[in-house]
């Protein structure tokens, strides 16, 4: 293993062997993104080769393979997670928090705060006296949601309380450190509680991601209720919504959407809300990059230990990626496509569908009263 210094980086090849989507989400400056199998063909043998993956596991194996092939190859200790932890640790806490808050009030008010407030009003997501558990995973969406809630509360128009809730389902110490440091940088007073979800689902072969998500939701509801909250807030955004609509049609043979609010079936009096419902993902990324913030993308153990030969990636994640790419491709030809997908579930005419279910799950056919 090796440590990498950006000083003199021109004399070496720095290679990120993670997926293209992970690389796009965040990477070490100056790195190139090559799939593991393409490294020998695309890298100059005359230079030392520094490889990294998510946590240094796969890059260590790849470096050993390259050395056998005659490369002077090294694996970066701890991978991108360790680099991210060290980078975040160098931040000026007071300056970062003030800068991020000012950007929400000024530069990104129209793109972030206004649609956030609009969703709350349009869908009735907040009421006087609510106590909301803002669920923070450590990614860009949930951290921005926390800052938007703080900004809304500062206006004082609706009396409500906030708890910034972080569940640790078994994060690596590096990922947990990044989450805690980012919360400190952004002046978000988090409440952290632990569970053993990752350990419980790690060896499940069928639909581990679905089971993990359901378990995480249950733990969040339970902790939020214990803390006196009546609502939990998740950071799903506009792009998540339109991708879900299209995924339901293409892969689920159904017309449905990700709802802006949902009553819990298992926790009486609890409600799930999605106040980022009208915010575009590209604007969230713009806010992140403007403030030079770096968040974890995925802290799941499945991706931490994924290898090229036996990667247990989520089928749902793969489908969502394909749908995201499809929507982006269609939007290049017609910018109205994304809005049309979103609006499609607001303009359903039951007289033009063959069959539908009512809210009690009872099916009705078009010819019942034909």
Counting DSSP H or I runs of 4 or more residues, the number of helices is 15
Strand order of the largest sheet: 7-6-5-8-10-9
Radius of gyration: 23 Å
In whole angstroms, the N-to-C terminal distance is: 73 Å
Beta-strand residue fraction: 5-15%
Name the CATH class of the largest domain.
Alpha Beta
Classification by helices and strands: alpha/beta
Short description:
The chain is α/β, with parallel strands linked by helices and 370 residues long. It contains 15 helices and twelve strands.
Overall description:
With 370 residues, this protein is of the alpha/beta class. It has three domains: 9-87, Rhodanese-like domain (Oxidized Rhodanese, domain 1, 3-Layer(aba) Sandwich); 91-303, Rossmann fold (3-Layer(aba) Sandwich); 315-365, no CATH class. It has 15 helices and twelve strands. The strands form three sheets. The protein has a six-stranded mixed β-sheet, with helices on both faces. Strands 2-1-3-4 form a four-stranded parallel β-sheet, with helices on one face. Helix 4 (79-89) runs parallel beside helix 8 and helix 11 (238-252) packs across helix 14 (315-333). The protein is globular and about 75 Å long.
Write the layout of secondary structure elements.
Elements (H helix, E strand, L loop, with lengths): L12 E4 L3 H6 L6 E2 L5 H4 L6 E4 L4 H12 L4 E3 L3 H11 L3 H13 L3 H14 L8 E5 L4 H16 L5 E8 L4 H13 L4 E5 L2 H5 L6 H19 L4 E3 L4 H15 L8 E3 L7 E3 L7 H10 L10 H4 L10 H19 L3 H8 L10 E3 L5 E3 L5
Parallel strand pairs: 1-2, 1-3, 3-4, 5-6, 5-8, 6-7, 8-10
Antiparallel strand pairs: 9-10, 11-12
Helix pairs in contact: 4-8, 11-14, 11-15
């Amino acid at each position: 293993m090796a440590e990498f210094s950006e000083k003199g980086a021109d004399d070496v090849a720095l290679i990120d062997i993670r997926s293209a989507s992970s690389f796009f989400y965040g990477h070490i400056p100056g790195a190139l993104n090559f799939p593991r199998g393409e490294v020998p063909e695309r890298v100059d043998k005359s230079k030392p080769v520094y490889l990294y993956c998510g946590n240094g596991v796969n890059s260590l194996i790849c470096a050993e393979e390259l050395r056998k092939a005659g490369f002077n190859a090294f694996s970066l200790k701890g991978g991108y997670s360790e680099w991210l932890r060290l980078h975040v640790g160098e931040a000026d806490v007071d300056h970062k928090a003030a800068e991020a808050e000012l950007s929400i009030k000024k530069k990104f008010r129209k793109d972030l705060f206004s649609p956030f407030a609009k969703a709350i009003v349009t869908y009735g997501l907040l009421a006087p006296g609510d106590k909301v558990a803002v669920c923070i995973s450590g990614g860009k969406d949930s951290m921005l949601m926390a800052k938007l809630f703080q900004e809304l509360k500062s206006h004082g128009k609706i009396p409500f309380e906030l708890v910034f809730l972080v569940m640790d389902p078994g994060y690596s110490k590096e990922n947990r450190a990044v989450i805690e440091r980012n919360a400190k940088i952004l002046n978000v007073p988090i409440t952290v509680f632990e569970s053993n979800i990752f350990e419980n689902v790690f060896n499940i072969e069928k639909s581990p991601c679905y089971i993990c998500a359901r378990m995480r939701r249950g733990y969040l509801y339970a902790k939020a209720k214990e803390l006196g909250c009546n609502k939990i807030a998740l950071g799903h955004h506009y792009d998540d919504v339109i991708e879900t609509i299209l995924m339901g049609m293409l892969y689920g043979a159904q017309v449905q959407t990700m709802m802006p609010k949902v009553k819990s079936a298992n926790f009486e009096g609890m409600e799930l809300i999605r106040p980022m419902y009208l915010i575009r993902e590209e604007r969230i990324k713009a806010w992140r990059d403007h403030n030079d913030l770096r968040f974890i993308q995925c802290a799941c153990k499945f991706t931490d230990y994924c290898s090229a030969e036996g990667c247990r990636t989520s089928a749902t994640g793969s489908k969502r990626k394909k749908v995201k790419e499809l929507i982006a491709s269609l939007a290049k030809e017609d910018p109205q496509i994304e809005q049309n997908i979103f609006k499609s579930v607001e303009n359903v005419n039951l007289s033009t569908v063959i069959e539908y279910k009512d809210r009690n799950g009872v099916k009705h056919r078009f010819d019942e009263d034909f």
